[in-house]
Specification:
This protein is mainly β and 138 residues long. The chain is 0% helix and 38% strand. The chain has no helices and eleven strands. The strands form two sheets. It has a six-stranded antiparallel sheet, with no helix packed on it. The chain has a five-stranded antiparallel sheet with strand order 2-10-4-5-9, with no helix packed on it. Strand 6 and strand 7 form a beta hairpin. 21% of the residues are buried.
Length: 138
């Protein structure tokens, strides 16, 4: 599942005519993963750049937060992996030291994890969160 940052929708223009046009839909900035397995599952996040102040990922159901406070250039990405608590820039360079909140989580059996993606400041281009995981079994 993937999502961009939250963005407002188009809304209604006045005067209202019929049929009513509600404009373009907004983006909620949320990605979801459901663990259909029988054991807790790890999740992996890939956040592509354009975030000069970093980003935050919040597990909506529990309030746990991962906050990454470091610029992520437009042509870079950061991979956060809850299986081992690692953070890698472009898949190779360790950057775990830039995690100021590191409430790592797993998704319980039969549970859905909703992740809210937010920027800590400005935005350049179109940052993207890709959330992935696999059902886990005992």
């Amino acid at each position: 599942m993937s999502t961009g940052l939250p963005a407002p929708g188009g809304g209604v223009a006045f005067p209202v005519g019929f049929p009513v046009d509600f404009g373009a839909a907004g983006v909620d900035g949320r990605a979801r993963f459901t663990n259909e397995g029988t054991a807790p599952a790890s999740v992996r996040f890939r956040v592509s750049g354009g975030l000069p102040d970093g980003f935050s990922l919040r597990y909506v159901e529990t309030g746990d937060v991962l906050t990454f406070r470091r610029p992520v250039a437009s042509d870079d990405y950061v991979v956060l992996d809850s299986a081992d608590g690692s953070a890698l820039l472009n898949g190779v360079s360790p950057v775990s030291g830039y995690l100021t909140d590191d409430d790592w989580w797993q998704v319980g059996p039969g549970e859905t994890c909703t992740v809210q993606f937010t920027s800590l400041g400005g935005v350049q281009g179109s940052p993207l969160l890709v959330l992935s995981g696999s059902p886990a079994y005992f």
